[in-house]
Amino acid sequence: MLSKTKIVLALAFIWGYTTSAVSAQALPDAQDGLTRLDEVTVSSTRTERRVDNVPNTVTVITAADIEQEGAQNIRDVFRNELDVTVRAAPARFTAAGDATGRAGNESIAIRGLEGNQVLMMVDGIRIPNSFSFGAFSTGRGDFLDVTGIKTAEVLRGPASTQYGSDGLAGAVSFRTPDPGDLLKSGQSAGGFVQSGYAGADRSWSTALGVAGRNAQWQGLLLGSYRQGHETSNKGGDYAENVTRTAPNPLDYSNPYLLGKAVLTVNSANTLGVTAEAQRRNQDTEVYSARPVSPLGSGSVIDLDTHDQTSRNRFSVEHRFNDINADWFQRAESRLYWQDARVSQLSEEQRDVLPGRTRDNTYQSRVFGFSTVLETSLNGWLNQRLSYGVDWSRADVAAVRDGTVPPYGEVFPVRPFPDTTYTLSGAFVQSELEFGIFSVIPGVRFDHYRLSPSADGYAAAAPVALSGQAVTPRLGFVWQLAPSFAPYGQIAQGFRAPTPEMVNNGFTNRASGYTSVGNANLKPEYADSLEIGLRGRMAGVRYSLAAFDNRYTNFISQQLVSGAGTPADPSVFQYINLADAHIQGVEARTEWQFGRRWTANAGIAYSEGHSVVNGVKTPLDTIQPIKAVIGLRYDADDWGTRVNFRHSQGKQVGLIAPARTPQFAPPAYNVVDLGVYWKPARHVTVNANLNNVLNASYWRWPDVRGLADNTPVKDAYTAPGRNAQLTVRLDF
């Protein structure tokens, strides 16, 4: 349980800040500048509701926020979020053993869970799952480009009632720009051009967007190109071997293209077509894979890698909106196709033995359909029904290829069989309005099926798997007063097993081990409770939330039999093993004082552990206490801001025991400054100076699993002081 002291500290933080703000200056509730209270989210209920009128915690990050902060990737996008992090370890991998940093921006963590336990979507279409097998490791963050993000909505808590599988910890919903977002009122054509430089990775970026419209048609074409190098750190050893702490040399390029066309059929119906293409190419000279000196026994003398991540999608959307219609007043349907691929090529030279290569690929092709309808029932109470279906069929495949394969293998080999992964679900939800009291019940039924193919699969005969889940949710919002609005939610979530879990085939009898599939895997489940309080008064808005999440049937790969000999090899298998419990509190506040000043503050604390056979083990994905304080000034044609981030050090007792003691990074404080300036009506300049005090620090997600006795800790430090500049012209 959360200690009383920590709860009191969190409460004191929010109430103390709010009280002092109100005492300092009393402003009317309608004070300009508190526009964030009117932000609209669709991720919480799949219907439009204000963020201060949903039964859970949702934050919305806009394109303007991303641009002003100078974000280069999704790790930067969530830099100032309290309970959201993105793991991005330094590129210190090897060709056939260690995968450290190979996945790039790996995934998003929410309230202590990460990876495929967090649902990620772009325009309602799932981002492919991450995958890891030995030195082959794929992430999810590099499937996105910040230029194509209109909004990023972060939904905390299980999201299965709304979206089905995967949203155990929450969901992050990205939306791409529409033509109207590039056009000002009254414009029939317009757009922007933008160019920028970021010192953290010495990258240059250029973006161009154009849009137009007439009585029936709207269109948008947006493209960007970014190229840069390795992300800097505070390491000072530039040796071209394993002792190196400076970043390994790296070059990347990132082209992105988005096109949209929208036809207004009539006053109620529109049809839209979207095409999107994202690609990232990265070349790395991995000096850190070399020993201090060749040992004459096959030591690595050079390792060069080329990685490519791509995502292409095409979708057709239909929207219906007629408040006077009889059966349903709103509907949104989408038919989509998406092809995502990760390839990782490694070329390794050795001092005695022949050089070897590794050419690994992971691909996910998905075809899907979704529709959501809304019906308003006006009788003795105000009720809005929403209901819909989702269906997707993904063909997932991976291949490990190259030269000089491991003993007992013949390349090419598949780490799991080609699998057709089908997800289907239907949900219904009611939004009941009793004056100032809202009750939002919902329930969803999902079915999943994994259908593997034996073609080209050399391991044991693959096994098929199917199952279903029912996930209810009940939420309420009580707008008792503008300054006091309690809310709460009880929700369930689930995550279906994935192809590599059900069929993970690898055999090395010479070393005495093998892995086999499991046709009896059950889904992972979540039971979540969140209660909170929101309010606004005299120019201040605040929110306080406490959550308790319990997870069952966590899937883990374990040794299930065998003696570890060639005659009786050890057998590894994914099984339902662990349960987990995560709880925490979060507090946020924002104060608008005067016409131009805004201050904000927030703090988040969580704790959690897994349970295996009655033994509790700390969850390493739990983040230390984090606090954020900001101050900004906005004039008519310029503004400035300062952000302060504090992270508590990771306590050794909250790290899972390992054979080698793990590195627990100390606390850190970081100050960022930003300025924007409009020298002309259509020109905007954004400048940022990050880590102003040039602090040397480690982010816990990036160092997780690093041994405490390693001599290369500095290789994992975050960038020191760095500048960023963008210039944008709107026309």
Layout of helices and strands, plus pairs?
Layout: H1 4-24, E1 40-41, E2 49-50, E3 58-62, H2 63-69, H3 74-77, E4 84-86, E5 108-110, E6 118-122, E7 125-126, E8 131-133, E9 136-138, E10 151-156, H4 160-163, E11 170-175, E12 189-198, E13 203-213, E14 217-229, E15 250-264, E16 269-285, E17 300-321, E18 330-350, E19 356-378, E20 382-403, E21 419-434, E22 437-452, E23 465-478, E24 485-495, H5 499-502, E25 506-508, E26 513-516, E27 524-537, E28 540-561, E29 570-593, E30 597-612, E31 615-618, E32 626-634, E33 638-647, E34 668-680, E35 683-690, H6 700-703, E36 722-730
Parallel strand pairs: 6-11, 26-29
Antiparallel strand pairs: 1-2, 3-10, 4-5, 6-7, 8-9, 10-11, 12-13, 12-36, 13-14, 14-15, 15-16, 16-17, 17-18, 18-19, 19-20, 20-21, 21-22, 22-23, 23-24, 24-27, 25-26, 27-28, 28-29, 29-30, 30-31, 30-32, 32-33, 33-34, 34-35, 35-36
Brief descriptors of the model:
about 725 residues; mainly beta; Maltoporin, Chain A; 22-stranded antiparallel beta barrel; five-stranded mixed β-sheet; 36 strands; globular
